[in-house]
Amino acid sequence: MSTSGKLKAILKSGRFVVAPGVFDMFSARVADRLPFEALYMTGYGVSGSYLGVADAGLVSYADMVGRARQIAEGTGKPLIADADTGFGGLLNVRHTVRGYEAAGVQAIQMEDQVMPKKCGHTQGRQVVPLNDMLKKIEVALEARRSDDMLIIARTDSRTTLGLDEAIRRGKAFARAGADIVFVESPESAEEFERIGGELADSGAWVFANMVPTGRSPVVPSSTLKEWGFHIAIYPSIGMAAATAALDNAYRHLLDHGDSLELQVPSFTMDQLHELVGFPEVWEFEKRHAQSSETAS
User: How far apart are the first and last CA of the chain?
Assistant: First the structure.
């Protein structure tokens, strides 16, 4: 579904964006039916749900852009999408930005990690020199067809190089023209407050990642807004709940040999039918069956 420019308009209006993480069409359809301003396609979620592997640079551009296209076409909310490091060198970055934009993504997130990258809430991440990331931002801005396609520049430098360097990089990303700046995995509420305060006047919107049980504390969105942030993503909220529910349900089946008295909240078959679009299929079949009968 086309929602071109909608995310940019929402941010320019001053509304704070809370975006739940989605990773497949079940999660995307469920989230899309709720009044969120945007959805966030998580690289961790796609790596795990689609390939069954760690978010450690193993998922490819083709994997990610294909899943982004499915989600963008099958939902009505603006889609923010993880693009790791851009999947290679500067030519890859250009190809990635153009591919994501053509797929219907409205904001693409790229980071300054050394390849192969790792999840931002794990140890062992290394970053490229600042000038290398600034060149990547330059290429990303040049590659997009429309400035409605927002470029999110993320730094993973906090963990290995410290908060001062992470904020320095964030300011440099904004000066280079990034639409949105993202300092990954601050380690306290005080660090979030400092990041928001120091980047709020950078000319870029400021982005926060909320990962319960990760390296960062969870800060209420109202507080993040007060501190100068504009977007908060919750990449793990759906996959964490879904995998826990699956584990619980399958264990019940193993232990009891049936699904009777299962205590996990579950959709009925009618709810699942509605979610995946069976009512539209039945209406289509009914309409064309009637046309056939009339013709005969």
Answer: 37
pTM for the whole thing? 0.92
Determine the length of the chain. 296
Burial class (CB in 10 A: 0-12, 13-18, 19+), 286: exposed
Q: What DSSP assignment string belongs to 137-163?
A: HHHHHHH-SSTTSEEEEEE-THHHH-H
Burial 84-105 (b: 16+ CB within 10 A, else e): bbbbeebebbbbbbbbbbebbb
Residues 155, 182 contacting (CB under 8 angstroms):
yes
- Quick check: bond before 116 cis, omega within 30? yes
Using DSSP, state whether 104 is helix, strand or coil: coil
Residue 58: how many other CB atoms lie within 10 Å: 13
Q: Which candidate, 66, 63, 62, places its Cα nearest to that of 52?
A: 63
pLDDT in tens, 99-134: 999 999 999 999 998 877 767 576 777 899 999 999
pLDDT tens per residue, range 166-216: 999 999 999 999 999 999 989 999 999 999 999 999 999 999 999 988 788
